[in-house]
Design a protein that fits this description.
By secondary structure, the protein is of the alpha+beta class. The protein has three helices and four strands; from the N terminus they run ββββααα. The chain is globular and about 35 Å long.
C-alpha cells in the first residue's frame, strides 16, 4: 500500500518514505510509527496504543516514543 500526503509517499511494500519523489532515510521503528499513524489517521492514537502495538511485550520508555515521533515529523517535513 502506498499512502500519499502533502509532498510525501509512504510505501509499505518497499518500506520507503519519499518526499518530492526522493527517498528519505528513516530508521525502521520510525517508519513503523509513521506507518501506524498514517493507517489510523482517522482518529487520535494514544501513546499507550503506540507502545502496545509497536513494542509489544517490551519495556520501552516514553523517551523512545518521543524520539521516534520527532524523527517521523522531521522526515515528513513537519516542524
Amino acid at each position: 500500500m502506498v499512502y500519499r500526503f502533502a509532498d510525501c509517499e509512504l510505501d509499505e511494500h518497499l518500506y520507503q518514505l519519499r518526499r518530492s519523489g526522493a527517498p528519505v532515510p528513516v530508521e525502521p521503528k520510525v517508519f513503523d510509527v509513521l506507518a501506524y499513524l498514517v493507517q489510523h489517521r482517522d482518529r487520535v492514537v494514544s501513546k499507550d496504543e503506540l507502545l502496545d502495538k509497536l513494542w509489544p511485550g517490551q519495556v520501552v520508555g516514553e523517551n523512545t516514543l518521543t524520539r521516534c515521533i520527532r524523527a517521523a515529523r522531521a522526515a515528513v517535513g513537519d516542524d
